[in-house]
Amino acid sequence: MNFYYAISGTQRAFIPLSTNMDFTNILEKAGGFILVAICWGSTNPFIKKGTIGLEQVSQKYPEGGFKKWFAELFYLLTRWQYILPLALNLSGSVVYYYTLGKSEMSLAVPITNSLTFIFSLLTGLLLGEDLGGKVIAGVLICVGSKA
């Protein structure tokens, strides 16, 4: 029988490795993480592009209030360039909650968020977005704090 060493807080134990936790189970979890990251990360730049023109709608209502909110909402909900990526993004949330139920949160959250950032960055570059110095500095700070 195979065992793995588990550390949880101050407790340490050898836990039998069940045959159900095999390679396919690991692939299912990893596939869920990657699918969520693709759904979230690759749609973020498209959602941003879908909001182009929202500023003009907002400027028509300088006093703000319900009329401005309704006009902005109507503008966004009538643009397929916004709705389609948003629907794909939200479907990633469904997959995320399913994946969370089958994996440890301490693994799911950092893996998914890191991959989401990478897919957002790559999709933004493919769409011609400028990285800018702030993004590069932020990445360097995050990587440097982990080293």
Automatic annotation (TrEMBL):
<feature type="transmembrane region" description="Helical">
    <location>
        <begin position="107"/>
        <end position="127"/>
    </location>
</feature>
<dbReference type="GO" id="GO:0016020">
    <property type="term" value="C:membrane"/>
</dbReference>
<feature type="transmembrane region" description="Helical">
    <location>
        <begin position="82"/>
        <end position="100"/>
    </location>
</feature>
<keyword id="KW-0472">Membrane</keyword>
<dbReference type="Pfam" id="PF10639">
    <property type="entry name" value="TMEM234"/>
</dbReference>
<keyword id="KW-1133">Transmembrane helix</keyword>
<protein>
    <recommendedName>
        <fullName>Transmembrane protein 234</fullName>
    </recommendedName>
</protein>
<dbReference type="InterPro" id="IPR018908">
    <property type="entry name" value="TMEM234"/>
</dbReference>
<keyword id="KW-0812">Transmembrane</keyword>
